[in-house]
Amino acid sequence: MGILDPIKGFGVTFGMMFKKVATEEYPEAGAPAAPRYHGRHQLNRHPDGLEKCVGCELCAWACPADAIFVEGGDNTEEARFSPGERYGADYQINYLRCIGCGLCVEACPTRSLTMINFYELADDDRQRLIYTKEDLLAPLLPGMEQPPHPMRLGDNEQDYYVNGPELARKQPAEPKEPVK
């Protein structure tokens, strides 16, 4: 240990004093997340504004942390929320428990649940970390008031909800020639 070692240490400090400071204005201007980053969940809609969630509760069953609560409800002629017979009446994700594994997204048969790249999920109030259906629903497209009552579905969506996923994927069979 030499007598000049403390002076060498102060030399590093002295050298940094004249460099330009790199300041990040994080809360005002957040850094963009990577395009494939999976952060907060989102409940998607059909192009006509109806919800894709049918209240099947498969995402809640697949969640290893038991962070998702889903209660299904039945659609009526007066109030239609999704194209099928049922919809997710009550949907909650507790981000205090969520581990971000994405198993809920993989379990969703209608692809209504996805994870967007929003990453600011910290809060100092535990109640605000329980996201409800209103917090998770994708916004309506511009110019769209409320979802129309008579459901308008594309050909593939009509087949999916009327015939079920197995029959919607099957192509019509070619007629076989009789065996002689």
Automatic annotation (TrEMBL):
The keyword Metal-binding applies. Its cofactor is [4Fe-4S] cluster. It is a peripheral membrane protein. Residues 145-180 are annotated as: Disordered. Keywords: 4Fe-4S, Cell membrane, Iron, Iron-sulfur, Membrane, Metal-binding, NAD, Quinone, Translocase, Ubiquinone. PROSITE patterns: 4FE4S_FER_1, 4FE4S_FER_2. Its EC number is 7.1.1.-. It catalyses: a quinone + NADH + 5 H(+)(in) = a quinol + NAD(+) + 4 H(+)(out). It is found in: Cell membrane. The keyword Membrane applies. [4Fe-4S] cluster 2 binds at C63, C98, C101, C104. Its main location: membrane. Residues 43-73, 89-118 form the 4Fe-4S ferredoxin-type domain. It comes from the Bacteria. Binds 2 [4Fe-4S] clusters per subunit. [4Fe-4S] cluster 1 binds at C53, C56, C59, C108. Residues 167-180 have a biased composition (Basic and acidic residues). Pfam families: Fer4_7. NDH-1 is composed of 14 different subunits. Subunits NuoA, H, J, K, L, M, N constitute the membrane sector of the complex. PANTHER family: NADH DEHYDROGENASE [UBIQUINONE] IRON-SULFUR PROTEIN 8, MITOCHONDRIAL, NADH DEHYDROGENASE UBIQUINONE IRON-SULFUR PROTEIN 8, MITOCHONDRIAL. NDH-1 shuttles electrons from NADH, via FMN and iron-sulfur (Fe-S) centers, to quinones in the respiratory chain. The immediate electron acceptor for the enzyme in this species is believed to be ubiquinone. Couples the redox reaction to proton translocation (for every two electrons transferred, four hydrogen ions are translocated across the cytoplasmic membrane), and thus conserves the redox energy in a proton gradient. Belongs to the complex I 23 kDa subunit family. This is NADH-quinone oxidoreductase subunit I. The gene is nuoI.
